[in-house]
Amino acid sequence: MIEARPPAETLTGRFVTLEPLAEVHKEDLRAACEADPDIWDLYPYSMAGEHFEPYWAGAMKRMASGVFMPFAVVVEGRCMGVSCYFLDPPNRTLEIGGTYYHPAVRGTGVNPESKRLLMAHAFDHGVMRVGYRVDALNARSRAAVLKLGAVQEGIIRADRITWTGRTRDTVNFSVLAAEWPAVRDRLDARLAALAPSQG
């Protein structure tokens, strides 16, 4: 059976560097997570305050499983967030999720370039489908995923219970390998139009 398992390696762009998450990123990530305490109600879990240490311990443990690959989102030498692969190598698919950015880098080139780097890395290593799963209430993230060029596939109702006890509906999106060249070209044109100060 042919499997698709992109390696954990540093991915570098103009606005952002994605590094395999490691101890060196921990305190900067903790600080980034504290920068927007209200956003965590839209997440299935919290990474702020007392929740950060359990998140970190769980992430390190899951990394060892070989199906979870988190990347530190590094801007100007500082970890300003995280974005992750959830891998399914036998089916040559993965999901990009578990993403959080410090408010200071939202609305800049950081998200589109991060997703461009992650999708290119995935498709270059034989992945045939990259998925995204977004809380139905998270209008900003839903719009951002559509702007990337992903296709909305549907909504899974009552998909999970979040850390606050809310029942979440989840919107599924994807980009297929055959769609990637066109998606990539649109992302490249979008990123090329951004000035360095927008990164």
Salient structural properties:
single chain, 199 residues, alpha+beta, Aminopeptidase, eight-stranded mixed sheet, 5 helices, 8 strands, 30% helix, globular
Structural topology:
Layout: E1 11-12, E2 17-20, H1 26-34, H2 52-63, E3 68-75, E4 78-88, E5 93-101, H3 110-124, E6 129-135, H4 139-148, E7 151-161, E8 167-176, H5 180-192
Parallel strand pairs: 5-6
Antiparallel strand pairs: 1-2, 2-3, 3-4, 4-5, 6-8, 7-8
Helix pairs in contact: 3-5
Overview of the molecule:
The protein has 199 residues and is an alpha+beta fold. It has a single domain, classed as Aminopeptidase, CATH 3.40.630.30. Helix content is 30%, strand content 31%. It contains 5 helices and 8 strands; from the N terminus they run ββααβββαβαββα. Strands 1-2-3-4-5-6-8-7 form an 8-stranded mixed sheet, sandwiched between helices. The mean pLDDT is 95.
Brief digest:
This protein has 199 residues and is of the alpha+beta class.
**Helix fraction by DSSP (H/I, runs of at least 4):** 25-40%
Provide the CATH architecture.
3-Layer(aba) Sandwich
Mean pLDDT, all residues:
95
- Which homologous superfamily in CATH is the superfamily? Gcn5-related N-acetyltransferase (GNAT)
Count of individual beta strands: 8
Oligomer state of the chains in this structure: single chain
**What general outline do the C-alpha atoms trace?**
globular
Domain N-acetyltransferase: 16-169
Protein name: RimJ/RimL family protein N-acetyltransferase
